Amino acid sequence: MKLHALTKAITLATLLSTASLSAMAAEIPLSAVVEADQVTTKVVSVDAAAHQVVLEGPEGNQVHVQLTDKAKNLGKLKVGDQVNVKVTRSVAASLDTDIDKGLPGTVESAGESRAAPGSDNPGGEAYRQIRVQLKITKIDVKKHQVTFQNPAGKSKTVDVVRPEIQAKLKDLKVGQSVIVTYTDTLKVTSKQGS
User: Fold this and answer.
1) Residue 53, exposed/middle/buried by CB under 10 A (0-12, 13-18, 19+)?
2) Would you say 104 and 133 are in contact if contact means Cβ atoms under 8 Å apart?
3) Which of 9, 33, 109, 168 has the fewest CB within 10 Å, making it most exposed?
4) Where is this region: Disordered (predicted)?
5) pTM of the entire predicted model
6) Residue 17 burial (C-beta neighbours within 10 Å; 0-12, 13-18, 19+)
7) What is the pLDDT of residue 176?
8) Residue 23: is it exposed, middle or buried by C-beta count within 10 angstroms (0-12/13-18/19+)?
9) Does the pLDDT of residue 8 top 60, yes or no?
10) Residue 111 to residues 18, 91, 108, 158, 185: CA-CA distances in angstroms?
C-alpha cells in the first residue's frame, strides 16, 4: 500500500502547475471529508543535471522520479537522505445561496512553493484544487433525493443518506448550486542521512 501512496504522490506532483486560488462567498457548508497518506523513503541515486531521483520503495524496490527544472536544490540531495512524502486529499460540499447564478461550471487552480535555492534540505509543497458547480434541478424531500445538472449538461439524482443533510433538503431551492471542492496537497521534505 505504501508504494501505491508513493506512486499517487509522484503522479500528483507531475500534474501540478502554478495558478491562483480564488475565494467564493455566500456558501453554506454541507459536508467535508479529508484523507491523508504518508510515506518516508530513502534516496538511492540522484542525477541533478537530468532532474532524476531514484527512491527506495517500501519493499526495497526502486522508484524512478523524473522532476522538472523547477527542482533547484537536487545537488544538495545525497544517497541515503530520507524523503518524506505526504499527500492530503479533501472533498467539501457547500450550498451556494444565490439562485440562478448561471450554468454549472468547473474551475481549477494550483500552486506550489519550494525550498529556497541553496537550502540544505530540498523539498516543497504543491496543491491542486478543482471546484465543480452543480445546479439543483429537482428536490424530492420525501424520497431524500436531489437531482443535479453537471457542467456537461447531464443530470444525476443523488440519494441523501445522512440525516443531518436530509434535514436541510426542505431549505433547498431549484436553481441553487452546490459547489463541490476537491483539493489535493503534496508535501515533500528531505533530511540528510546519517
Assistant:
1) buried
2) yes
3) 33
4) 102-125
5) 0.64
6) middle
7) 87
8) exposed
9) no
10) 4, 18, 11, 32, 10
Residue 32, helix vs strand vs coil: strand
Extract the runs of DSSP E, i.e. beta strands, from the chain: 27-47, 52-56, 62-66, 82-99, 105-114, 124-140, 145-149, 155-159, 176-191
CA–CA dist 94, 26 (Å, integer):
10
- Who's near 183: CB < 8 A, 6+ residues apart? 88, 89, 90, 91, 92, 127, 128, 129, 130
Give the model confidence (pLDDT) of 92-142 as tens digits: 888 776 665 666 778 888 887 777 666 777 787 888 999 888 889 999 999
In this prediction, residue 45 carries a pLDDT of: 92
pLDDT 10s digits, 11-54: 444 333 222 223 333 566 777 888 988 888 899 999 988 888 88
Select from 41, 56, 51, 40 the least CA-distant residue to 74: 51
Degrees, nearest 5: CA angle 36-165-153: 80
Scanning the chain, the segments in alpha helix (DSSP H) are: 2-15, 163-166
- The x, y and z cell numbers of residue 121, run together, are 534540505
Do residues 80 and 190 touch, judged by C-beta distance below 8 A?
Answer: no
pLDDT at position 79, please? 92
State the chain's mean pLDDT as an integer: 78
